Amino acid sequence: MLNFFICFSAISAAFGNNVSAVRNLMGEPDYRKVRLHWETELNGIPQNGYQVRFCELQTWGMQRCRNQKVTEQEDNNLPREDNFKSFDVEISNLRMATKYSFEVRAQKENGSREDRAEGDNSENIIVMPTKGFSARATQCLPQASVIEVSTGPYFRGRIAVEAADGERCALDGEPTSPRDTYTLKIDHEKCGSQVNETTVGTFVLVQENLPILTHSTRRFLVLCSFQPETLTVRAGISLPTNALGRGQSDAIAFEEGDNYMRRSRHLRPARLLQGPDALDKKDEIKQEARSTAKSIPIALLAVLMVLGIVGLVCAAVRCSTKRISKEMDNVSISSDSSTASYTTNADVEADAISTKDSTVNANHLV
To answer: Where is the Fibronectin type-III domain (predicted)?
Structure first.
């Protein structure tokens, strides 16, 4: 039991030392090279330095494996304050658009036999692909399209429209130039693009080597979509405030000069690229908006004053109407009273006359 514990402790210590030898292994891929970076403890640096083993990862396994030594040099060793040292190494002469595996391990002594089965679980391995060709469309017009192709520096290949004749639809690289991007303008009619009412499609072929097609050759489809020329932008109306420059917004109709415009992207010219006439028009529009914002409160005040005057007139008319109606009521009451009194006197006289007649008749009978 004691022997088993001692053996297990020794294996754990050896495994821990191997793991802590290399830390934070990272890589920065490029077109034909990769830069590796890792850290090592001060007391864990191997005497013979490090060794980087890199292989191409294909479908059937690792191919074209190579080794590169990394020694502890002043320009490669970067000291740090937390008892760690940083190492940087550049692995060059790689193939474009290829996946590689990079393994960092301690350099074996001269004459020692390398055992591939030893330490496979504790070695630091990173897998990354190198960069390949890429393309993107920068402009889509009814008559032509402009694409930008990233090829990397010292490109000696060719960029051409597939199945197109003539040099107007192709572009050759410059082997001595460090530029890494090329711009190709495609004439839809001359280069044989597929054009319909809404889309334009063009196939572009990018080759690393002119005579043959390699694994890095890429075929891109440049597809542009269009929509009708007129767009209407509707905006809401906001009430004016005390701050200057805030007023109402009206509907604006935007029209393009071409028959179609690009659907996926609408580019506005920069302010510095616009002419002086456009800038003067913008200033005039701002001044008109400010004057409109100032005139609106004055108009509202005038409307309120008119409404107040109308209200006062209505109140005066109403008071005069009430007074006239009261006077008419008094006149009707007095006329009724006089009529009633006249009728009473007449009745009295009639009663008296009837009494006299009855008396005369009585005397006559007697």
So the answer is: 31-113
